[in-house]
Specification:
The chain is mostly helical. The chain has 19 helices and no strands. α3 packs antiparallel against α4 and α9 runs antiparallel to α10. InterPro entries: COPS7/eIF3m.
C-alpha cells in the first residue's frame, strides 16, 4: 500500500439505512415472529425526536447505536459468503469511522469481534477475506493493525494455511517500524512468527525470525539469553546453515557465554573435529536436551574443516593423507568429501 494510508470501503445509503441493513441481517438468526421485536429498539434509537439534531449530525448518537449493533454480533450470521463478507465490511467501515482508534474501548470491541469471527464454524476463506480487508482498511501506523494481523496469523497457523498469507521478512520489518506498539509487543509478534513457521515445518524461515526475535530483546535479560541459546540450537540443527558468525554478532548470544552450547558454537566457528569430538564426549545430555543430531553435527564440522583446510592452502595441492587426518576419515573416503564438500558448502552459503 504505497500510495495511500489505508483502503476505504464505500457503501450506499444513509447511516440509518446502513445500520438497519446490518440489524436486519443479524435478525435472521432470530425466529421470524420475533424479528420485528429485535429490530424495533434500533429503529427507535435511529429516530430523531423533534427539536434534536439529526443522527447524521450527532456522532455520539451514531457511536452508541453502532455499539449496540456490535454487541449483538454473536457469530457470522445466517447468510451466503458474499453476505457475510458484506456485513462485516460495512460494520467495520462504520467502526473505524466512529471509534477513536487508540481508545481502550475500541480495542475491547475489536478483540471481541475478532474472536467471534475466528471462532465461528466453517466459511474459512470468507474469514480470511474479512480479516485481510479490515487490516488494509486500518491506518498503517495504528496499533489495531497489529491486533488484526496477530489474529490473522494465529488463525492461519491453527488451520495450517500459513503459506497463503505470503509473509515476507521485509514486509514484517516494515510493519514493525510503522505500527505504534511497544517493544514487548514487537518481540511478541516476532515470537509468534517463530512458532507459527516452526509449526508449519518451515525451520529455515522460523530460524530467520528467531534471529529477529533475539535482536528485539534487551541483550542482558534472561529472556534474551534463553532465546539466544534456542537460536544457537536451531542453527546447529539446520543441516544447511553454516553462517555461525552471524550468531556471534548478537549481543544476547555473547551474554550467554557460560552456556555449553556457546562453547559448541565457538568450535563450529573457530576450531575443528577433534575439539567437537571432545565436546560431545562430555555433553551428551546437552545434545539430547536440544534435540541435536550428533551425526549431522559431525558432518557439518567436517564440511567446515574441509573448507578451512582449502582456504589455508589456496593455490597449493593438499595431500589426501592431510585431508584424511583433518576429517578423521579413511583415505578411501577423501575423494567423496573433496568432490561433494565444496559443492554442498557453496549451495548452503549461496
Amino acid at each position: 500500500m504505497a500510495a495511500t494510508d489505508s483502503i476505504s470501503i464505500f457503501a450506499e445509503g444513509t447511516f440509518d439505512e446502513q445500520i438497519l441493513e446490518l440489524v436486519h441481517y443479524l435478525s435472521r438468526s432470530v425466529p421470524e415472529d420475533g424479528r420485528q421485536t429485535y429490530v424495533q429498539p434500533f429503529e427507535d434509537a435511529l429516530a430523531t425526536p423533534e427539536g434534536q439534531k439529526p443522527i447524521e449530525e450527532d456522532e455520539e448518537r451514531r457511536r452508541k447505536v453502532l455499539t449496540s449493533v456490535v454487541e449483538q454480533v454473536k457469530g457470522l450470521g445466517e447468510g451466503s459468503d458474499k453476505e457475510i463478507e458484506g456485513f462485516f465490511n460495512l460494520l467495520f467501515s462504520h467502526f473505524l469511522t466512529l471509534f477513536p482508534l487508540d481508545a481502550p474501548e475500541t480495542r475491547s470491541h475489536l478483540d471481541s469481534l475478532l474472536k467471534t469471527i475466528v471462532a465461528a464454524p466453517d466459511h474459512t476463506p470468507t474469514k480470511y477475506r474479512i480479516l485481510a480487508t479490515l487490516f488494509n482498511s486500518i491506518p498503517r501506523r495504528s496499533h489495531l493493525r497489529y491486533t488484526v494481523y496477530q489474529t490473522l496469523l494465529e488463525f492461519a497457523s491453527a488451520n495450517d494455511d500459513l503459506e497463503h498469507l505470503g509473509i515476507s521478512q521485509t514486509e514484517v520489518d516494515k510493519w514493525l517500524s510503522e505500527w505504534e506498539i511497544s517493544p514487548e509487543e514487537k518481540s511478541g509478534f516476532l515470537k509468534l512468527l517463530v512458532h507459527s513457521f516452526a509449526k508449519a515445518n518451515d525451520a529455515v524461515t522460523s530460524f530467520q525470525y528467531q534471529l529477529s526475535y533475539v535482536r528485539s530483546l534487551p541483550s542482558s535479560s534472561p529472556v534474551a539469553q534463553t532465546a539466544a541459546i534456542e537460536a544457537v540450537a536451531s542453527a546447529l540443527r539446520l543441516p544447511s546453515y553454516f553462517d555461525f558468525d552471524t550468531l556471534f554478532r548478537l549481543d544476547a548470544v555473547v551474554a550467554a557465554k557460560d552456556h555449553p552450547l556457546f562453547s559448541l558454537l565457538q568450535i563450529f566457528l573457530n576450531e575443528g573435529l577433534s575439539q567437537y569430538s571432545a565436546w560431545v564426549s562430555s555433553h551428551t545430555d546437552v545434545l539430547a536436551k536440544y534435540e541435536l543430531d550428533s551425526a549431522q553435527l559431525e558432518r557439518k564440522i567436517r564440511l567446515l574443516t574441509l573448507a578451512t583446510l582449502g582456504f589455508q592452502n589456496m593455490g597449493r595441492d593438499i595431500p589426501y593423507s592431510a585431508i584424511a587426518t583433518a576429517l578423521q576419515v579413511d583415505p578411501s573416503q577423501v575423494e567423496s568429501w573433496v568432490i561433494d564438500g565444496p559443492f554442498l558448502l557453496f549451495l548452503c552459503l549461496a
